[in-house]
Input
Amino acid sequence: MSDWTVLGQVSDASNATLVVEAGDHRLVYKPVRGERPLWDFPDGTLARREVAAYEISRHLGWDVVPPTRWVEDGPYGPGSVQDWVGDDVAAVSVFREGAVPEGWLPVLQAVDDADRPLVVAHADTPRLRLITVFDLVVNNADRKGGHLLGDGDAAWGIDHGLSFHAEPKLRSVLWGFVGRPIDDGVLADLADRRDDLPDLLVGLSGAEGAALRARVDRVLADGVFPPPRGGPVIPWPPI
Ligand SMILES: Nc1ncnc2c1ncn2[C@@H]1O[C@H](COP(=O)(O)OP(=O)(O)OP(=O)(O)O)[C@@H](O)[C@H]1O
Ligand SMILES: [Mg+2]
Output
């Protein structure tokens, strides 16, 4: 990767997340070497999870994750690289009480530093419903507002390093759809591709592949957006 220029590190990222330029492409590079160890995920697997999330999204025909691939010879060694999809428009936002826009779904109440009520809400769009099903399937433990880039109609999901754990770990702000039916076309995609999905988890365990298939079967059997399970279900911070 001799033509890569490292432009800098994303400042608030907890792992080494680098913005690089390759020719006229801007990319997000996450070297395995820069991963901070976590108590619940095996060391050195987060970048593999980034690539697997992209492969699952692509294989289902959903394309909710920007193109992401594995590199062996990045400037700091092996890791994931993802296309940069910079966009300031948000699909999740914070509003004053009573000011949630028409068509948005409130999910969380909060207060500001003067104790005034606030509401966290997300847009109500097919794209966000699709990403919500994607998160159920990949068991995303970190769907905060900042991990959705773009507005509700065109949002990309990013940061899937905490996905695919064999234990239930879904943490998300996209709880506005609970109890609604999942779109038939989305269920059909899952039914069609169910058997192939575990093969896409390169570098992850067989138990994680089996758990992936079990989650798909649960979504197909339920056919509705499930309520949160017990335990922490909202990532911190949520935005
Ligand atoms: N593909 C992308 N396109 C545009 N911006 C991105 C992309 N990937 C990451 N970013 C930006 O970089 C930030 C950090 O990236 P990311 O969340 O993937 O890294 P992280 O190391 O897991 O960080 P954190 O622990 O803060 O979540 C994102 O919040 C986003 O602002
Ligand atoms: Mg992040």
